[in-house]
Design brief:
With about 350 residues, the chain is of the alpha/beta class. Helices cover about 25% and strands about 20% of the residues. The strands form four sheets. A six-stranded parallel beta sheet has the order 3-2-1-13-14-15, with helices on both faces. Strand 5, helix 3 and strand 6 form a beta-alpha-beta unit.
């Protein structure tokens, strides 16, 4: 008999760490969709899926911003699935010269995908988003003027926006590392993108995602396949519009309805083997939620489950992780799927 409760998994690939799967331009989509095929529902965050003009995800993949994921696993917020969101487009005034291409991208997405965009707002002043290099080889960032970002977001929310798509130019001054461009280093804008979206989500409690207004530093010619989505578009806006169009909304525990999803509905989390120090993994450990560590997804970090005293399932590949999810969903013992089947222990 099929359980009435959906089998809910989460696939996390932390941003800006050069993960070999999901650390580039939406190259985490195939493994996310593979895992989702073994689940009823799967939560994933935007940066593993966003690919400039492309967003390829199964219908059962829930597009949830990273701060919202943190609040979800901490039991502060739940997720409510929706048919559609009215999206407000927030553009940094420093990108005003790019306005025609950004609005063309928004209108193309409206015409092709049928999404609803309530309107757009320019910030009153430049946001001042800047990339910084982290001490572990990752990338972080800072915002010079967060208030102007939040003020523009508020105008959109007051106008009826249910989700916010953010487009800012990003200062890459001093960035001379070609690792990312060659597929051998972390995404330089991943950290600052997370800061921008976290700021809006934490302030207004609605879905948000960021797309860079432009990336002038990408090399010309044929690029590494995981970066190709960024090299073939004039803007990077369509992917976040497509993701936000049906992103789950956040609800408080006091607003919970029977169809909402909360942390106690989460069956399992999947993450790269060396990326287990984040809030979602620590929260799952505290709440005794199962986790799978995928060895093949390497990054600049090496925070392993063992180093934190965590007991998790280990998968060599995402192929193996998908099999584990399917077995759990179907209620099959792992022992029954291995040979030899171990003898029963005596009490």
């Amino acid at each position: 008999m099929k359980s009435e409760k959906p089998f809910l998994a989460m696939n996390l690939i932390p941003t800006g760490l050069g993960a070999s799967f999901g650390g580039y331009a939406g190259d985490g989509a195939p493994v996310t969709n593979l895992l989702a095929s073994a689940c009823d529902l799967l939560i994933a965050h935007p940066n593993a899926l966003n690919a400039a003009n492309f967003l390829e995800k199964r219908e059962n993949v829930l597009y949830v911003e990273g701060y919202g994921i943190d609040r979800f696993v901490e039991e502060d917020w739940g997720l409510r699935r929706v048919r559609s969101n009215r999206i407000g487009l927030l553009i940094d005034c420093a990108a005003e010269k790019l306005l025609p291409s950004l609005l063309n991208a928004a209108n193309a997405t409206r015409a092709h995908a049928g999404i609803e965009i309530s309107g757009f707002e320019l910030t009153k002043e430049p946001v001042g988003a800047k990339v910084l290099r982290g001490v572990k080889g990752n990338f972080q960032g800072e915002i010079a003027n967060p208030d102007t970002l939040l003020q523009a977001a508020k105008r959109l929310v007051d106008g009826g926006a249910e989700a916010i798509a953010i487009a800012c130019p990003i200062d890459l001054a001093g960035f001379d590392d070609e690792g990312y461009a060659s597929g051998n280093g972390p995404d330089p804008i991943g950290g600052i993108e997370a800061i921008l979206s976290h700021l809006v989500v934490s302030e207004f409690g609605i879905p948000a995602a960021h797309a860079p207004a432009d990336l002038p530093w990408l090399p010309e010619g044929i690029v590494e396949p995981r970066l190709a989505a960024e090299a073939c578009g004039t803007t990077y806006l369509p992917c976040i519009l497509l993701g936000l169009a049906r992103a789950p909304r956040f609800v408080l525990p006091s607003q919970r309805k029977h169809f909402d999803l909360f942390a106690d509905d989460l069956d399992i989390l999947v993450a790269p083997y060396g990326c287990f120090g984040g809030p979602p993994m620590l929260a799952c450990q505290k709440r005794k939620i199962d986790m799978i560590a995928v060895r093949e997804n390497s990054s600049v970090l090496s925070v392993t489950p063992e180093s934190l005293g965590m007991s998790v399932l280990i998968a060599s590949t995402y192929f193996e992780a998908a099999g584990m999810l399917l077995a759990l969903k179907e209620g099959l013992s792992f022992d029954s799927l291995r040979r030899p089947i171990p003898a029963l222990p005596r009490p």
